[in-house]
Amino acid sequence: MTAALLTTVLLIAACGLIYELVAGALASYLLGDSVTQFSTVIGTYLFAMGIGSWLSRFVGRGLAGRFVLIEIMVGLVGGFSSSLLFLAFAYTDSFRLLLYVLVLIIGILVGLEIPLLMRLLRDRFEFKDVVANVLTFDYLGALGASLLFPIVLVPYLGLVRAPMLFGAINIAVALWTTVILRQSLGARRSLRALCVAALILLGVGLWRANDILDLAEGNLYADEIVLARTTPYQRIVLTAWKDDLRLFLNSNLQFSSRDEYRYHEALVHPGLAALPTARRVLILGGGDGLALREVLRQPRVERVVLVDLDPEMTRLFSTHPDLRRLNRDALRDARVQVVNADAFSWLDAPGDLFDFAVVDFPDPSTFSLGKLYTTTFYRMLLQRLSPEATFAVQATSPLFARQSYWCIVATIEQAGLAVAPYHVYVPSFGEWGFVLAGRARPQLPSTLPADLRFLTLATMPEMFEFPHDMARVPVEVNRLHTQALVRYYEREWSAVTR
């Protein structure tokens, strides 16, 4: 019995941490700024656990029965927490409110668990042994959950099924508690019936989890969802309407197939076409292969290394028939080497030099992305470029996120590089900004590939002119330890979407 109760401590600790991690990850996926989301979720959760521990003093008689009821409640609330949050994000404006209400409720219930278990164990151990054993198994459970979450649960179950599974574990704990502590329970049959009903409910949830996601995402996206994947790094959704394919990462539009050529031609060719001797090209990000498609238009390119964090992205865009047509099978080209790695760490290791680089990351909406727009990052990139090389960076909108755009420009300059900022109009995004940079100021090309759909030599000089409403403004430099860019980006795009 003692071993069973200590195993109970381990399992409920794992379940509680999983609910906390799910809430933080989901908030980061949907709201961005992962540091803020995880910090506030963890802080609220720990505060709520303190409330629960304090409330446990008022639980007197019937400890075992109260413990079973708490397990049932935390299993149901925690198990369905991500489903409720996905639906709230899709259908209401109350996502943040519901997020913290759920975290408070789960935290209070989890805070009640351990003190009640310690009181149930006090007749079997001395007080010092109760504390030592309970805290040891509590920390072991937390360790197991923290390892399982990114390695197994998110990749294979996703953020809807994972908490349901652990909710079922909470209910299973409640059910076996009615067995191992049956002498202390007065209403065993009723409690067992509640456990069975809760398990059935969670079982139905696990079975219909895709329907819950479809219901939520069906309201988030205007077009039909043709593909959805959850990876350890992001939520990938592909929608289709007639001939328009759209890619969304964490609910943010990445491209529309109807006008992505404007973006990718502008990103690649002003820099690459001006370097007639460029043979080796580096692409950082761009796992969709669309920037790569443009690079491969230049017949002189002999080798391209594409570094993208998410292997599911590069796998998807190298195997899905519609996406392969869109990128012209660029990811399968013999000249291309795909590396699935964090670009920051990859650059920090010694390696080959390149004649041109394309930096095509998602916008700096989180600190993990913001580090890829810092002075540190650009200095590391410079060490992997040949003396005459240049690179191009996608740099968000100079119209809607003016400070963010010029922060990126100023950061590249602070890294010791000469810059040539420019912008183009992409219908799906509006005015969009880019930066060319090198040891010397990049020059405009005198020729372009013949089969481009948008870019011309005649119109290119206009791209490097900025009207008054997009002109340069004073900004902080984005450094690794401060990440001013993420603050600019969050403030400016929040104002646009209100």
Question: Strand count, sense and closure of the main sheet?
Answer: 7 strands, mixed
Low-confidence stretches: none
CATH architecture of the largest domain: 3-Layer(aba) Sandwich
Give the overall shape. elongated
Let me know the average pLDDT.
90
Based on CA atoms alone, the radius of gyration comes out at 27 Å
Cross-sheet strand order for the largest sheet: 7-6-5-8-9-11-10
The tally of beta strands, per DSSP, is 11
Q: Could you give the distance between the termini?
A: 56 Å
Give the oligomeric state.
single chain
- Number of DSSP helices? 19
Strand content: 15-25%
Global structural class:
alpha/beta
Q: So, the CATH homologous superfamily of the largest domain?
A: Vaccinia Virus protein VP39
Order of helices and strands: HHHHHHHHHEEEEHEHEHHEHEHHEHEEHH
Domain module tally: 3
Kindly identify the CATH topology of the largest domain. Answer: Rossmann fold
Helicity level: 55-70%
What's the CATH class of the largest domain, please? Alpha Beta
Structure overview:
By secondary structure, this protein is an alpha/beta fold. The protein folds into 3 domains: 2-216, Growth Hormone, Chain: A; 222-254, no CATH class; 259-497, Vaccinia Virus protein VP39 (Rossmann fold, 3-Layer(aba) Sandwich), CATH 3.40.50. The protein has 19 helices and 11 strands. It has helices spanning 2-31, 34-55, 63-79, 81-91, 95-121, 127-156, 158-180, 188-207, 209-220, 260-272, 290-295, 311-319, 321-326, 343-348, 367-370, 375-382, 402-414, 460-463, 484-497; strands at residues 224-230, 235-241, 244-249, 252-256, 280-285, 303-308, 336-340, 354-360, 385-394, 418-426, 430-438. The strands form 2 sheets. It has a 7-stranded mixed beta sheet with strand order 7-6-5-8-9-11-10, sandwiched between helices. Strands 1-2-3-4 form a 4-stranded antiparallel beta sheet. Strand 10 (418-426) and strand 11 form a beta hairpin. Helix 1 packs parallel to helix 3 and helix 4 (81-91) packs parallel to helix 9. It is elongated and about 90 Å long. The chain starts with a helix and ends with a helix.
